Amino acid sequence: MTLLAHLLLLFSIISATSAVPLKTLHQLFLKADADANANATQSYYPSLPPSLDPWYRAPTTHDWTQTDPGQVLKIRHAPLLNLTVRNALRAYQLLYRSTDSAYNPSWDVTTLFIPRWQARCWSTAASTRWCAHALLSYQLPYDTCNVDASPSFGLQLVGEPYGEVADALGLGWFVAVPDYEGPLASYAAGVQAGHATLDGVRAVLQVAGYFGLRMDVAKVALWGYSGGALASEWAAELAGQYAPKLRIAGVALGGLTPNVTSVTEYLNGREGAGLIPQGLMGIATQHPDAYRWIVSRLRPRLRGLFLSVRRMTAAQAIATFQYQDIYGYFVGGYQDLHTRVMQMMYNVDGYMGYHGVPRMPVFIYNAINDELSDIRDVDELVDRFCGVGANILYHRNTVGTHTQELVNGRQRAFAWLRSVLDGSYDEVYSSMGCTIQNVTYNIAPWVGWG
Ligand SMILES: *[C@@H]1O[C@H](CO)[C@@H](O)[C@H](O)[C@H]1NC(C)=O
Ligand SMILES: *[C@@H]1O[C@H](CO)[C@@H](O)[C@H](O)[C@H]1NC(C)=O
Ligand SMILES: *[C@@H]1O[C@H](CO)[C@@H](O)[C@H](O)[C@H]1NC(C)=O
Ligand SMILES: *[C@@H]1O[C@H](CO)[C@@H](O)[C@H](O)[C@H]1NC(C)=O
Question: Where is the signal peptide (predicted)?
């Protein structure tokens, strides 16, 4: 299909729902077209954080809530991102319709990176041979209830923390990085994160053909570590009911946190204790009764400090609250976090394994000595899924901490993702049932938090 045909197809999808100001989209896609626009950078100033940037709002002039989840509502060129992220030819931001934890219409933003290799596809009109055939949705762990620390903004200021987007682009994949916590920065809210991840993929697939992704053969995979694994796991288990037509070839999950209350107990008083206030203020944005309860139960003298996490990154919160007893911030201590209103919130958004079963192959890699989440919770989750026919490769690493396993597991995750994306999975891995292995990979230097 020619670029023009892609363009027309895209416009027909969009005009059918009339969700998007056609003129704006038309202008944007003209900008996107074949290096034509030397003025592209003028269309986009990254100086405003999401909380202040009017682009991060739902459209006001169209009834976007009536559109289907995954519908692209806005798109813009993000010209600085190819400077901060290696191997990117271009980057775009898409704002799309999604669904929050209460199943109300919501919206999220994802950043789509086009790999450098794709230049050959664009210049070789006669052959699709050089065009990408894989999309990786990469969920970055941002672990904060501060919307201004969302990846779409942070990536252009400081680049990416682990170089994994660049490596994936280096393999010729399209890479999308969703702000899966959404407009309220609902850190640790599983349903919100899963929906945002799935709809981010649907949104990207709506436009990716225009950028030359081989839609006839393209495969999609999800990958995330820690907070990113949270979003990816929820996407994997929600996909069957929320996005039944979306085909996902595989999901790689590292450093899982299956049980939010167990993680809280594990982290309290430890180095990572600052993730507790982040998680409580994040998950509660999806549960207004619990949010009001939490704020009302904070000891008055400590309330300001606790609530200041809303302006912190994960690293800042960890530095501020490390080794503290977070229960001590509450009038009623531990009990205040286990009342009925709190438990109802955890039941909806905090426990993996109760909303569905992944129907795609899954790779899980976890350090046995993970200090953020009890490995037994991961064992239990794997057992639960395996009992109902899931296809999982589960690596339990005998060495390393939570942070080290991110590095120790990276090459195994890449190898696994390559196989699901290039179609060789069945030849390399067992495509039936579960394979659980104790492994020993020790390549990571010690790295601290954040
Ligand atoms: C850039 O924008 C200016 C004014 O908006 C216009 O006059 C000029 O033709 C544009 N240049 C290109 C190469 O599009
Ligand atoms: C980034 O993209 C812009 C606009 O497409 C382009 O002019 C620029 O050369 C690119 N930079 C790099 C480093 O590729
Ligand atoms: C989560 O962890 C808590 C604390 O360890 C435990 O009491 C609870 O049963 C767990 N919930 C689920 C759903 O596994
Ligand atoms: C892994 O090691 C644990 C003990 O650390 C043992 O209980 C378990 O059976 C082992 N699992 C496999 C699949 O070898």
Answer: 1-19
Pocket flag, ligand 4, residue 436 (CB < 6 Å): yes
419 a catalytic residue: no
Which H or E run contains 94?
strand 88-99
The pLDDT of 154-167, averaged and rounded, is 91
Residue 261 CA to ligand 3 centre (angstroms): 6
Please indicate, yes or no, whether residues 156 and 20 belong to a single structural domain of this protein. yes
Question: Residues 338, 398: one domain?
Answer: no
Shared domain for 306 and 390, answered yes or no, is: no
Does the CB atom of residue 261 touch ligand 3 within 6 A? Answer: yes
Residue nearest to atom 13 of ligand 3 (CA): 351
C-beta of 37 in contact with ligand 1 (< 6 A): yes
Q: Please tell me the residue having the least CA distance from ligand 2 atom 13.
A: 83
- The residue whose CA is least distant from atom 2 of ligand 4 is 438
Q: Which two tokens stand for residue 184?
A: 């309220």
Same domain (yes/no): 266, 336? yes
**What pTM, to 2 d.p., does this model score?**
0.88
Selected catalytic residue, list 226, 232, 373, 419:
226
Q: Span 122-141, mean pLDDT?
A: 88
Q: Which of 98, 370, 373, 395 is catalytic?
A: 370
- Residue 9 scores a pLDDT above 90: no
Q: Is 370 a catalytic residue?
A: yes
Range of the domain at 144: 3-248
Task: Express each pLDDT in 220-260 by its tens digit.
Answer: 999 999 999 999 999 999 999 999 999 999 999 999 999 99
Compute the average pLDDT of residues 119-123.
87
Centre of ligand 3 to C-alpha 263, Å, is: 9
Choose one of 192, 224, 248: the last residue of a domain: 248
pLDDT, one tens digit per residue, over 71-91 is 999 998 887 777 789 999 999
Is residue 402 among the annotated active site residues?
yes
pLDDT of residue 274 exceeding 60: yes
Ligand nearest to the CA of 338: 3
Average per-residue pLDDT for the chain: 89
Structural domains counted in the chain: 3
- For the CA of 436, the closest atom of ligand 4 is 13
Sheet holding 134-139, edge to edge: 72-77, 88-99, 105-115, 174-178, 134-139, 219-225, 250-254, 362-367, 392-397, 434-439
Query: Which atom of ligand 3 is nearest to 354's Cα?
Result: 13
The confidence score (pLDDT) of residue 28 equals 45
Ligand 3 within 6 A of CB of 414: no
Tokens linked to 65: 């809530």
**What size, in residues, is the chain?**
450
Question: Could you tell me if 184 and 204 lie in one domain?
Answer: yes
* DSSP characters over 378-438: HHHHHHHHHTTT--EEEEEESS--HHHHHHHTHHHHHHHHHHHHHT-HHHHS--SSEEEEE
Write the CB contacts of 12 (distance below 8 Å, at least 6 apart in sequence).
Answer: none
